[in-house]
Amino acid sequence: MEEMDYRELLKNRKRIVVKIGSSSLSYPNGKINYSRLEQVAIALSKLQSEGRQMVLVSSGATAVGAGRMGITGKPSDKVEKQALAAIGQAGLIKIYQRFFDRHHQAVAQVLLTKDAITIPVRRRNARNTLDTLLGLNVIPIINENDTVSTEQIEFGDNDTLSAYVAELIDADLLMILSDIDGLYSGDPHNNPEAKIISLVTEFSPWLENIASGSASSFGTGGMVTKIMAARICWEAGIDAVIASGEDPFVLFRLLKGELLGTLFAFGSRMTVC
Ligand code: GLU
Questions:
Q1: Averaged over 24-40, what is the pLDDT?
Q2: Which SS3 state, helix, strand or coil, does residue 17 take?
């Protein structure tokens, strides 16, 4: 299959998980970028109206909490982070709710810890709830339940969380919107030769190296967790895309089949094998 054929297939993806990270939702000084959140709400409401089932995995609880408390810089320890997330999660959902309301789109807050994925009875429960919400035409807005997360039950990052959610609900596409516009052949910060890889069709040892964090400095800057998310999608046979979160309307262009970001075309894997 040619790359354009894989991209064409994105047009028909129906159940889609969109993940957006804190760095795409806030300014470098830590202040929340309200218009970015509004654009996310507009894009997802429109895609939902087209008949797709959208799920949003949004970070930003800690950032909103820090903003509310006038705290700049990273939280000093885990307890402070958990407290800021508790403050910020309520604010984050309030902001989203206001923007989604303008587009007459109902949303629901879903906070998960890893045991919702790994313990069968909780897994069934989480899946049923998410299925019911999607059946009711509601967009779930998911985040890690940072306030109660301990090492044993934490996802640790929302890239991984979003991939587990995609797997849990049998999504047919995961779209990760990030401050990097795709996977590069090297570290774009210090290698001018590094080129964006537009299509990945299998989880190669090179990707395995990145996911394990052993691919030197290229592993930093959030790519490790994104490739870990891609590995979960590979195992589940789900397509994934990494693209820039600078303009959330990029979702429309990707779903029209445009050649943007990196497409991990893993959706046909189960049928090919
Ligand atoms: N759950 C964290 C928050 O909302 C973010 C985790 C992440 O971005 O990976 O602040």
A1: 93
A2: strand
The span from the CA of 78 to the CA of 92, in Å, is 20
Quote the percentage of the chain above a pLDDT of 70. 95
Q: Are 42 and 16 in contact (CB under 8 A)?
A: no
Pocket of ligand 1 (CB under 6 A): 21-22, 59-62, 85, 143-144, 146, 157-158
pLDDT of residue 168: 98
Q: Please tell me the distance between residue 1's alpha carbon and the centre of ligand 1 in angstroms.
A: 37
Confidence at residue 55, expressed as pLDDT on a 0 to 100 scale: 98
pLDDT at 112 over 50: yes
Closest CA to 243 of 181, 188, 198, 186: 181
Look at ligand 1, atom 5, and give the residue with the nearest C-alpha: 59
Q: Tell me the Ramachandran region of residue 182: left when phi exceeds 0, alpha when psi lies from -120 to 50, beta otherwise.
A: left
Superfamily for domain range 3-272: Acetylglutamate kinase-like (3.40.1160.10)
Phi-psi region for residue 60, left (φ > 0), alpha (ψ -120 to 50) or beta?
left
Q: For the chain, give every domain's residue range.
A: 3-272
Handedness of CA 144, 245, 181, 46 (dihedral sign): positive
- Residue with the smallest CA separation from ligand 1 atom 2 is 59
